[in-house]
Protein backbone atom coordinates (compact mmCIF):
# COMPACT_ATOMS: atom_id res chain seq x y z
CA UNK A 1 0.00 0.00 0.00
CA UNK A 2 1.47 3.35 -0.96
CA UNK A 3 1.77 6.07 1.61
CA UNK A 4 -0.12 9.28 1.06
CA UNK A 5 1.83 12.48 0.73
CA UNK A 6 2.30 13.66 4.29
CA UNK A 7 3.21 17.29 5.04
CA UNK A 8 4.86 16.24 8.31
CA UNK A 9 8.61 16.42 7.73
CA UNK A 10 10.17 14.68 10.72
CA UNK A 11 9.42 11.24 12.09
CA UNK A 12 7.67 12.13 15.35
CA UNK A 13 6.77 15.75 14.75
CA UNK A 14 4.22 17.25 17.12
CA UNK A 15 1.42 19.24 15.51
CA UNK A 16 0.51 22.43 17.43
CA UNK A 17 -2.97 23.87 17.44
CA UNK A 18 -6.38 22.64 16.29
CA UNK A 19 -5.89 19.92 13.67
CA UNK A 20 -9.21 20.68 11.93
CA UNK A 21 -8.10 24.27 11.24
CA UNK A 22 -4.70 23.04 10.09
CA UNK A 23 -6.39 20.68 7.65
CA UNK A 24 -8.45 23.50 6.18
CA UNK A 25 -5.38 25.66 5.62
CA UNK A 26 -3.33 22.74 4.32
CA UNK A 27 -0.55 23.13 6.92
CA UNK A 28 0.83 26.01 4.91
CA UNK A 29 2.21 23.57 2.30
CA UNK A 30 1.32 24.03 -1.35
CA UNK A 31 0.89 20.94 -3.48
CA UNK A 32 -0.44 20.17 -6.94
CA UNK A 33 -3.15 17.91 -5.49
CA UNK A 34 -6.28 19.08 -3.75
CA UNK A 35 -5.36 19.51 -0.11
CA UNK A 36 -8.90 19.13 1.20
CA UNK A 37 -9.18 15.51 0.00
CA UNK A 38 -6.14 14.29 1.93
CA UNK A 39 -6.50 14.24 5.68
CA UNK A 40 -3.11 14.02 7.43
CA UNK A 41 -2.88 11.50 10.20
CA UNK A 42 -0.66 13.43 12.56
CA UNK A 43 1.61 11.57 14.95
CA UNK A 44 0.74 8.06 16.09
CA UNK A 45 0.26 7.79 19.83
CA UNK A 46 2.56 4.79 19.90
CA UNK A 47 5.22 6.56 17.87
CA UNK A 48 5.07 3.92 15.15
CA UNK A 49 4.98 6.16 12.11
CA UNK A 50 5.12 3.27 9.63
CA UNK A 51 1.69 1.99 10.69
CA UNK A 52 -0.95 2.75 8.07
CA UNK A 53 -4.23 3.89 9.55
CA UNK A 54 -7.51 3.06 7.87
CA UNK A 55 -9.22 6.16 6.47
CA UNK A 56 -12.77 4.75 6.47
CA UNK A 57 -14.69 1.91 7.96
CA UNK A 58 -14.91 -1.13 5.71
CA UNK A 59 -18.70 -1.18 6.11
CA UNK A 60 -19.01 2.37 4.78
CA UNK A 61 -17.07 1.72 1.55
CA UNK A 62 -19.11 1.94 -1.63
CA UNK A 63 -18.56 -1.13 -3.74
CA UNK A 64 -19.27 -0.50 -7.37
CA UNK A 65 -17.42 -3.64 -8.46
CA UNK A 66 -19.80 -6.65 -8.26
CA UNK A 67 -16.97 -8.93 -7.14
CA UNK A 68 -16.54 -6.79 -4.05
CA UNK A 69 -20.28 -6.58 -3.38
CA UNK A 70 -21.39 -7.56 0.08
CA UNK A 71 -23.88 -10.14 -1.13
CA UNK A 72 -24.56 -11.95 -4.39
CA UNK A 73 -27.79 -11.67 -6.31
CA UNK A 74 -30.25 -14.55 -6.13
CA UNK A 75 -29.81 -15.35 -9.83
CA UNK A 76 -26.04 -15.53 -9.43
CA UNK A 77 -26.38 -17.83 -6.41
CA UNK A 78 -28.82 -20.05 -8.32
CA UNK A 79 -26.48 -20.22 -11.33
CA UNK A 80 -23.50 -21.11 -9.14
CA UNK A 81 -25.56 -23.80 -7.41
CA UNK A 82 -26.61 -25.25 -10.79
CA UNK A 83 -22.99 -25.28 -11.91
CA UNK A 84 -21.89 -26.97 -8.67
CA UNK A 85 -24.58 -29.64 -9.01
CA UNK A 86 -23.69 -30.26 -12.66
CA UNK A 87 -20.02 -30.68 -11.76
CA UNK A 88 -20.89 -33.04 -8.91
CA UNK A 89 -23.15 -35.10 -11.17
CA UNK A 90 -20.42 -35.36 -13.81
CA UNK A 91 -17.78 -36.42 -11.27
CA UNK A 92 -20.14 -39.03 -9.78
CA UNK A 93 -20.81 -40.35 -13.28
CA UNK A 94 -17.07 -40.60 -13.98
CA UNK A 95 -16.48 -42.40 -10.67
CA UNK A 96 -19.25 -44.88 -11.48
CA UNK A 97 -17.74 -45.53 -14.94
CA UNK A 98 -14.34 -46.23 -13.36
CA UNK A 99 -15.94 -48.57 -10.82
CA UNK A 100 -17.83 -50.46 -13.53
CA UNK A 101 -14.64 -50.76 -15.60
CA UNK A 102 -12.78 -52.21 -12.60
CA UNK A 103 -15.60 -54.72 -11.96
CA UNK A 104 -15.62 -55.78 -15.63
CA UNK A 105 -11.83 -56.19 -15.60
CA UNK A 106 -12.01 -58.36 -12.47
CA UNK A 107 -14.76 -60.55 -13.97
CA UNK A 108 -12.78 -60.95 -17.19
CA UNK A 109 -9.67 -61.94 -15.20
CA UNK A 110 -11.64 -64.54 -13.20
CA UNK A 111 -13.18 -65.98 -16.38
CA UNK A 112 -9.76 -66.28 -18.01
CA UNK A 113 -8.36 -67.96 -14.89
CA UNK A 114 -11.29 -70.40 -14.81
CA UNK A 115 -10.86 -71.23 -18.50
CA UNK A 116 -7.10 -71.71 -18.02
CA UNK A 117 -7.70 -74.09 -15.08
CA UNK A 118 -10.27 -76.10 -17.05
CA UNK A 119 -7.90 -76.44 -20.00
CA UNK A 120 -5.05 -77.45 -17.71
CA UNK A 121 -7.29 -80.06 -16.06
CA UNK A 122 -8.35 -81.48 -19.44
CA UNK A 123 -4.75 -81.81 -20.63
CA UNK A 124 -3.61 -83.33 -17.34
CA UNK A 125 -6.54 -85.77 -17.11
CA UNK A 126 -5.72 -87.23 -20.55
CA UNK A 127 -2.27 -88.30 -19.47
CA UNK A 128 -3.17 -89.01 -15.84
CA UNK A 129 -3.04 -92.47 -14.37
CA UNK A 130 -5.55 -93.35 -11.68
CA UNK A 131 -4.16 -95.26 -8.72
CA UNK A 132 -6.37 -98.22 -7.96
CA UNK A 133 -6.29 -100.93 -5.28
CA UNK A 134 -2.69 -101.33 -4.23
CA UNK A 135 -1.94 -97.63 -3.78
CA UNK A 136 0.17 -98.09 -0.67
CA UNK A 137 2.44 -100.70 -2.28
CA UNK A 138 2.90 -98.56 -5.38
CA UNK A 139 3.71 -95.46 -3.32
CA UNK A 140 6.34 -97.36 -1.31
CA UNK A 141 7.98 -98.62 -4.48
CA UNK A 142 8.16 -95.14 -6.08
CA UNK A 143 11.26 -92.99 -6.06
CA UNK A 144 11.29 -89.40 -4.79
CA UNK A 145 11.12 -88.06 -8.33
CA UNK A 146 8.06 -90.17 -9.08
CA UNK A 147 6.40 -89.11 -5.82
CA UNK A 148 6.90 -85.46 -6.80
CA UNK A 149 4.99 -86.11 -10.02
CA UNK A 150 1.86 -87.29 -8.19
CA UNK A 151 -1.04 -84.83 -8.43
CA UNK A 152 -4.41 -84.82 -6.75
CA UNK A 153 -7.65 -83.18 -7.83
CA UNK A 154 -9.15 -80.34 -5.85
CA UNK A 155 -12.01 -77.91 -6.43
CA UNK A 156 -10.95 -74.26 -6.55
CA UNK A 157 -13.31 -72.31 -4.29
CA UNK A 158 -12.90 -69.03 -6.22
CA UNK A 159 -13.61 -70.35 -9.70
CA UNK A 160 -15.51 -73.55 -8.82
CA UNK A 161 -13.42 -75.69 -11.19
CA UNK A 162 -11.57 -78.94 -10.60
CA UNK A 163 -7.80 -78.53 -10.74
CA UNK A 164 -4.72 -80.68 -10.31
CA UNK A 165 -2.42 -79.73 -7.45
CA UNK A 166 0.63 -81.30 -5.89
CA UNK A 167 0.02 -84.18 -3.51
CA UNK A 168 1.53 -82.33 -0.56
CA UNK A 169 0.15 -78.83 -1.15
CA UNK A 170 -2.37 -77.45 1.29
UniProtKB/TrEMBL annotation:
Polar residues composition-biased segments: 58-71
Q: Which UniProt keywords apply?
A: Chromosome, Citrullination, Coiled coil, Nucleus, Phosphoprotein
GO terms under cellular component: chromosome; nucleolus
Keyword Oxidoreductase part of the UniProt annotation = no
The leader peptide range reads none
The coiled-coil segments of this chain are 80-127
Please give the superkingdom of this protein's source: Eukaryota
Cell compartments where the protein resides: Chromosome; Nucleus, Nucleolus
Q: Which InterPro entries match?
A: CCDC86
* Region spans: Disordered: 58-77
Q: What does this protein do?
A: Required for proper chromosome segregation during mitosis and error-free mitotic progression.
User: Which PANTHER family does the UniProt record give?
Assistant: COILED-COIL DOMAIN-CONTAINING PROTEIN 86
> Can you name this protein?
Coiled-coil domain-containing protein 86
Q: Which organism is it from?
A: Eucampia antarctica
Amino acid sequence: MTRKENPITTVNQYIHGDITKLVETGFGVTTNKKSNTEVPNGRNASGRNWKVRAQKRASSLVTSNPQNAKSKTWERKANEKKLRLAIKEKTDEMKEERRQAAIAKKERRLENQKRRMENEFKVASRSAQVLGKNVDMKLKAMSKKQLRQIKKTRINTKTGTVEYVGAYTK
